[in-house]
UniProtKB/TrEMBL annotation:
Belongs to the DSD1 family. Its cofactor is pyridoxal 5'-phosphate; Zn(2+). It comes from Meganyctiphanes norvegica (Northern krill). Keywords: Lyase, Metal-binding, Pyridoxal phosphate, Zinc. Residues 260-358 form the D-serine dehydratase-like domain. Pfam families: Ala_racemase_N (PF01168), D-ser_dehydrat (PF14031). Its EC number is 4.3.1.18. This is D-serine dehydratase. The keyword Manganese does not apply.
Length: 373
């Protein structure tokens, strides 16, 4: 059975494993995030990397098709082809990227890059932008997330911002912070600490005569759990919120019922002598992210919370019952089960098409994500 051309079908007619999306939940998740931004007068710049689809971005932007941040140039080009504007390539710029960046700058009214190294700044300073355009650059600042970005206390970032701001060929857009530490620390404390740190950085820049038009933070945990200090910002740039996942649930970002994406899988074998059954979803259908907690495993079985996906090979998953003896009669061979993924970004990346279910639980749309870099 082809993975495409399944609109109108029920889940029982689909080849498994497959990735299902609840359209109403995605709409609600996008609406709630926009409301969080409205509450504090902030712009929403939607991160696209969770779903990488045109349809998802239309919902994230409320139909305006403006204001995205992408993790790959492939995504940026894909959305430019689809008529989106105001796109940020939110990934550390290196000189190798410049030809593709220049092409996007030339074709869009607003295309931005993100820098966090002197090498990237020098490449912009020493390379003329396309005629009639300027490079547009955000400075990435590390406020504790320990990924990319100049450390917030260092003068290195101050020097970069000054150099960008002085160049006649560059438009300095401001600061970009990812609160990745909100995944391992208290969310509210991390959110407010990040805002305090980026505010300190802004203050130091202002003393040097550099204004930051945009000051934004991201990460779904911090943006799903907003606070009054966000009034000091201008922009939020979360991404996972469109689908959500079990990891977000463990962080208090959502309930299990709000998770919009899940994997449908079928039971393929019973093994009473070891009290296990097998399903047709291995790590190529879910990824191995998240294992460490036997209750959540690699994900949570929707409507069957006592089941645990305890082991996976490439195409096969091993399932046990956390409450004790597995009742094989409840899960006949061929029966469909649904797994809420630990990390929806990684799981969605396993599939060439998402089956989007309408209110009647039948396939209403097929979303085909872009892939590559």
């Amino acid at each position: 059975m082809s993975r495409f051309g399944n609109i109108g079908k029920g889940v029982e007619e689909l080849t498994t494993p497959c990735f299902l999306v609840d359209l109403e939940k995605v709409k609600t998740n996008c609406y709630k995030m926009q409301e969080n931004c409205n509450m504090y007068g902030l712009k929403l710049r939607a991160q696209t990397k969770t779903h990488k689809t045109v349809q998802g971005c239309i919902l994230q932007t409320g139909g305006t098709k403006k204001g995205l941040v992408c993790s790959t140039l492939d995504e940026a080009e894909y959305y430019a082809d689809a008529g989106f504007e105001d796109i940020l390539y939110g990934y550390p710029l290196i000189p190798f990227h410049l030809p593709r960046v220049a092409a996007l700058v030339k074709r869009l009214a607003e295309f931005h890059v993100m820098v966090d190294s002197h090498t990237a700044v020098e490449s912009l300073l020493n390379t003329l932008p396309p005629k009639g355009h300027k490079w547009s650059a955000f400075l990435k600042v590390d406020c504790g997330g320990a990924r990319e970005g100049v450390w917030w206390e260092s003068d290195k970032g101050i020097e970069m911002a000054e150099a960008l701001n002085k160049s006649p060929n560059i438009k300095f857009m401001g600061l970009y912070v990812h609160c990745g530490n909100s995944y391992v620390k208290n969310v509210e404390e991390t959110r407010d600490e990040s805002i305090d740190r980026v505010e300190d950085f802004v203050s130091r820049l202002e003393k040097r005569g550099v204004t930051c038009p945009t000051v934004g933070i991201g990460s779904t945990p911090t943006c799903r759990q907003p606070g009054p200090k966000m009034k000091k910002l201008t922009e939020l740039h979360p991404g996972n919120y469109a689908f959500l996942d079990v990891q977000q649930n463990t962080l208090g970002s959502c309930t299990l019922e709000e998770i919009a994406g899940c994997v449908a899988t079928r039971v393929i074998g019973h093994y009473p002598h070891r009290n296990q059954m097998l399903i047709d979803c291995g790590f190529t259908g879910l990824t191995k992210q998240g294992f460490g907690n036997m209750k959540t495993g690699y994900g949570v079985f929707k409507d069957n919370p006592n089941l645990s996906l305890c082991k996976m090979t490439q195409e096969i998953g091993t399932v046990e019952d956390l409450s004790g003896k597995l009742d094989f009669g409840k899960y006949p061979i061929g029966a469909i089960l649904y797994i809420l993924p630990w990390h929806s970004c990684a799981t969605a990346a396993m599939y060439p098409v998402y089956y989007v279910l309408g209110k009647d639980e039948r396939v209403a749309e097929e979303w085909k994500p872009t892939r590559g870099w």
